[in-house]
Design the sequence.
């Protein structure tokens, strides 16, 4: 995808923590939206999924936010620290420019998210997290958190490499930001709290809708898509489906434990958004069925 170089005035970024610990303590739980968290962490990093699985209720807490941007470090310096961070900043600028007009047309207040790059571990408004958590969005501070080494993990362990795959990651997390701004995320957290038995099912819908929004962004920028991008995105969506990850970990696919959706569902969500380029298509994930 041929994205334009970011304009420093159009994005908000921050350099976060470094190291393998959890700054400020905490149990390493994150109550936030993510591309893929628990199963890939167990598969790639050998951790206990039960120790990483947070609840969305945590996102309503007022935990300290991530470390402040380093004094004298400019947006450009942060974005240019490596090739992956540059791609992420280019994507963030494009996402802001794509979605802000949509919010204006809908009469909904828009706020661009903060993008934090960290290494090893960090502390967000949703609590502490490690690189094993994967990229995530925290509704409490409207932040997208990325340890860019995750992209190497996707490529090496899951065969999901390429620039469009990395853009898909950013666009998915941005999809959770959209859900937060529209109030859907809060409604889902409330429903999960009132009916814990439906928590996983509701979370799957949240994740699939975020995939759909990622596709819509790509579809609205179809003129920038290069040959093979769509196939690359669908391959990535398939690689991170709950059923595929469970099977790679030597487990039997268990739909009741899914939190992000099957490979087929994630591919369908991304494809629907890309082909329609219409965010209304993504509303289907929360319509009465």
Sequence:
């Amino acid at each position: 995808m041929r994205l334009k170089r970011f304009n420093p005035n159009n994005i908000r970024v921050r350099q976060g923590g470094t190291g393998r610990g959890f700054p400020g303590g905490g149990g390493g739980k994150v109550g936030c939206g993510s591309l893929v968290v628990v199963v890939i962490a167990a598969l790639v990093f050998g951790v206990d999924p039960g120790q990483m699985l947070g609840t969305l209720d945590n996102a309503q807490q007022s935990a300290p936010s991530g470390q402040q941007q380093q004094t004298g470090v400019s947006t450009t310096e942060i974005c240019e620290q490596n090739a992956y961070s540059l791609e992420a900043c280019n994507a963030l600028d494009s996402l802001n420019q794509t979605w802000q007009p949509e919010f204006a047309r809908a009469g909904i207040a828009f706020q661009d998210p903060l993008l934090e790059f960290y290494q090893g571990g960090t502390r967000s408004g949703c609590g502490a997290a490690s690189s094993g958590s994967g990229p995530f969005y925290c509704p409490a501070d409207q932040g997208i958190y990325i340890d860019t080494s995750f992209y190497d993990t996707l490529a090496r362990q899951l065969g999901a490499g390429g620039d469009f795959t990395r853009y898909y990651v950013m666009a998915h997390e941005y999809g959770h930001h959209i859900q937060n701004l529209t109030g859907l995320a809060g409604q889902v957290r409330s429903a999960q709290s009132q009916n814990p038995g439906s928590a996983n099912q509701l979370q799957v819908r949240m994740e699939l809708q975020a995939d759909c929004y990622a596709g819509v962004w790509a579809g609205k920028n179809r003129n920038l898509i290069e040959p093979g991008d769509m196939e690359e995105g669908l391959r990535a969506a398939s690689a991170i489906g709950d059923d595929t990850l469970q099977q790679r970990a030597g487990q039997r696919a268990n739909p009741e434990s899914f939190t992000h959706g099957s490979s087929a569902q994630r591919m369908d969500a991304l494809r629907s958004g890309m082909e329609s380029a219409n965010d209304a298509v993504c509303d289907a994930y929360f319509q009465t069925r």
About this structure: The two ends are 35 Å apart (CA to CA). The chain has eleven helices and seven strands.
